[in-house]
Every structure is written in structure tokens, then in C-alpha cells.
Amino acid sequence: MNTEQLINSLPVDFFFLVVDQNLDIKLPQLKNFYSIYNPNLSQKNSGYLLSQPSTTNFIKKTTKKSGHQAAIVPFKPSAKIDLICKQNNWLRISNPAPLNRLLEDKIKFPSIIKNIPQLPFTIAPYTKQNVDKLIKKYTNIVAQTHFGWAGNSTKLITKYDPTIIPPNSICKFTPHLRGYSLLNNCCLTTNGLIQSPPALQFTGLPQYTTNPFATVGRQWPSMAPQKIINQVKNITTDFAKILIKIKYKGFFGLDFFITQNKVYLLECNPRLTASFAFYTNIEIKAKITPLFYYHLLEFTNPTVPPKENRFNNKQIIGSELTKRDESGVIIKKINDYKIFSNTYNKIKLNV
């Protein structure tokens, strides 16, 4: 029995909460997988979507007909989802919200990965004195607040400006360096780590965003040198050991910054990633069991992943671009099973 057949045989109905159609995934081959989307919601929030009577009624009606256990699949965990699942005795296909919150906190993350390569950083309040001191040291700096999405918590600082970040906000400051970014998707299972090859990250392309730090797409393969790819693999393996210690499991993604042929871990997305849906389609096209399948199984019926050479699989090819408005919301998506840029350091799109 292959993984797809195993999922279909489970006495479980999976309900994927969709608050943004651009992050939806279509899996008609899974007979017990349902997407729930309500375009009329006043809040784009998974917990709010799950709390709606129309949502809970659909889940209860579907599981009553099938006789299956309900399993809620959020894009991002939340305390509200945790509570609703507990109240209804539904399975939650995600890590607890506090664990997600810990790993997404850009101020706390550096101390979590203290033994893994990361850019020089300073944690300090956003004040004129601190900014002037750091600019004198680095010329330009990047400031990040605790939480953000699509780069909206990351700011380039060339001088102190209280309108950019509220004064005295605790920030992580790093030097603004030249380089490029990579990402990968991974799944930590009971029986080991599975990681995708790294993808080239399309960041701050002016035709797709006004934010120089916003991610607007990605591409497999990354086109990066093998030496860099090997560093990404080793850092991911070391980071997974940290996740094991704090009892994390399932899907996650990592962002890396490369400068002067060295790889630094930037952040972790401890959940499904913005690229997971398209990457899943790439895996299916390449006839590889998707990481997302292992994510579903890890919370319902952990299985032993087969030994495979996924990391170096040359059939993993695909590119995606996501145009965003000023608030970071995706307004257009383009993807195809081909390479959009033949270079990694100076991205030149051929679409």
C-alpha cells in the first residue's frame, strides 16, 4: 500500500482551512480531504473560519455520513483552533499554538539556534541612540520586530525614523548585506527528517512588490553552487535536532541568507509554508510522495518514509511568482513547471 492509498484508507476526514484562495491546495486523489473556504468572512483568520456554524455543521455532517474522525488542517496554528478541536474532540493536524508562536518569534529565534550559523545580530529597543550606534558600525541595518508575514515586520534602516517602527519597540538588528536567499520545505516525522532541495527565493522584485524584503516567489532548482546546497542540507539537519528536543513534528520551512559563499539561517516557518501547495504539485508531477502527505500521516498514522534521493532529485522543477499589494496580500499568482531564472545572484526572469 503506497502513502496515498494509506491516507485514503484511514478512518479520518481531513478539513483544510482556507482563508486565502492563493494558499489553497487541490488533492482530488485524496477521497477524504476537503478544503473549507468562505469568501464572505469579515476576518481572514483560520480560527474564525473554524468557529463559524456553517463550518462546524459541514464537518459534523461529513463525518457523520462517513463515520470518520474529523481532523482539522490549519495553514497556521492558533490558540482558537486548539480550543475548538479540544471542545469537539477533533484531531488537530498541527503543532500546539504556543510552540508555533515560539519558533516564529524573530526576537526569540536567535537564542533557539545559537549553535547554528546566523548573521551577527543585536536585540535592543528601537531608539535613536541604538540605531545611530549600529549604523556607525554597519552603515545600513535591518530591523525586525517580533512577528510578521511576507516581510512586513522587516525594515531597512538608514537613519533613525520613529515613523518606521514605534520608538522603544524591541527589535532584532542585523547588518544589511549583499547576497541572495534560499528556502526549503521539510517534514519532521517520527521516523526521521525529510527535506526538499533548496529553492531560490524571489525577494523584493519591484514589479511584484513595493517591499524590498517581501518574498514574491520561489524556484526549484535554486541554481546555487553545490557547496551552498550542502551547507543548507547540513544546517537543516542540525536544526531538526532542535525541533526534536522541543517535540515539534510535521511540516516546516526554513529561510536562508547567502553572502560571501556562506549560508546563514534566517528564520523558521513552523507550519505549512506559502510554497507548500505548489511544491506538493511539483512532487506529484515528479512521482515523489509529497511532504504534505507525511505531514497528514504524522498526526494520524505515522509511517516509515522510504529511503529516497529526494534532496538531489533532478525532476523537482517549478517556479512560482506571487504579486502582492501594499499590505502584502497576494493579488496574482503565476506558476509553471519550468525555470524562471537561470541565475541565482542576479535574478533575471524569463516570464
UniProtKB/TrEMBL annotation:
Organism: Candidatus Shapirobacteria bacterium CG2_30_35_20
Transmembrane segments: none
Name this protein carries in UniProt: ATP-grasp domain-containing protein
Source organism superkingdom: Bacteria
Cross-referenced Gene3D superfamilies: ATP-grasp fold, B domain (3.30.470.20)
InterPro entries in UniProt: ATP-grasp, CPAse_ATP-bd
Keyword terms, alphabetized: ATP-binding, Nucleotide-binding
GO molecular function: ATP binding; metal ion binding
Domain ATP-grasp: start-end pairs: 221-297
